[in-house]
Actin-related protein 10 (Exaiptasia diaphana), 460 residues
Amino acid sequence: MPLFDIIGLGGEKNAVVIDIGTAYTKCGFAKEAAPRHIIPSYITHTVNGTTNTEYVFENDKRNPDELYAVLRDFIHMIYFRYLLVNPRDRRVVICESVLCPTLFRETIAKVLFKHFEVPSVLFAPCHLVSLFTLGVPTGLVVDCGYNESLVLPIYEGISIIKAVTGIPLAAKSIHEYLEKQLMDRSLVQIEKGIKPLSSVMASLPEDILEDIKVRTCFVAPKFSGPKDEPRPASLVHQVDYPLDGGRILRIEGQIREQTYDILFDGDEEEKSIATALLDSLLMCPIDTRKTLAENIVVIGGTAMAPGFKHRLIQEIYILLQSPQYKDRLFIKTVKMHQTPVSSNCAAWLGGAIFGSLEILPDRSVTKEQYMQDKKIPDWMQCDIPVELQPASEELQRPTLSRRQTSGITSTLSSLSSKLSSHILGSSSNRLSSQLGRTSTPGSSPNKSIQENPAEEKKSD
């Protein structure tokens, strides 16, 4: 438990920071350097001996009531199994993507405010708070997650929404490609001998594919040979991966080396992570491109693969010399930041930094505001409503009666007469004082100032 809860000191307690991802969720407290727990983003229910798994993010559209029930059970598990704190005592910071569905935001706010009765909730964009960990206001943030890879440029703390680019190439695509390669080419050693994997298992579970990818695969440098020349045989050694039941899966070196190439070779439209990054730069203002190219920040669990950042820089430099970008992007230098934590926890750490600031209560949505408005504002909404008059409607002058106009006229005439008399009286007194000051003793008071003798000589 947090230290303040044990000691019992006064003051506001540290906020709860939650980063809900498609595959994994990070949870912890503000003012801490790392999340307390990293858990899968699903819940399991056992009914009559049957275990059902429900994921927080589903591809199909859920009923709002079903989504409410899933989020309620999932957040209940976070509070009372992992964090072990009272939800009513702490503010909440939710790290979200800019493409987060509105239904999900509204449902999670409804769960936190109505079911758990939290004091306030702040939805922080994960791309923006990731820059807090580096202390820079400008950066081109590349988020390589589970379902998609998203690129969002941020200039001086402002997200350039029109330059957002995303491609459906991420961890899910890697798992599908890896499973296909293993089923077609890998062998399994069993008690009776060696057989193809497809004859022993129909498919591989998602958690096994994730473990094989993390433990055995890596990102190799780009093959620099001609396009028509076949790629040489891999020099990477094969490895044995243990399966259930004493079975041993043999993974070839070529599979280990070329699994991540799907992220950089592109999809059917020839879109890859490198092209998405450069396309995002092209949609930014021309005077911001150089600064953004020198401040690239890569986050997400997929970016933790060995050799990922080196391959991304290599692909960018090759594309900058291609005809597609050579005459449009005049960028010579590309630099990449190194986050102080692992790439999958960068967004959470940024939320923890923002949750420790004194400005958190002003930026958060309180429980009273939510109960009054029943909605969560986003970046598209304005807090101050502006009412504009139609252009065809003309401004009408106020009409005054004859008595009002006569009264105003008499008042103005009296004020003008008093003002003129005051000005004339003060000017005459000032003139007489000046004349008295310039006159010499023994001379008449009507005599004016004598002319300069030098001027008299010039006139003669």
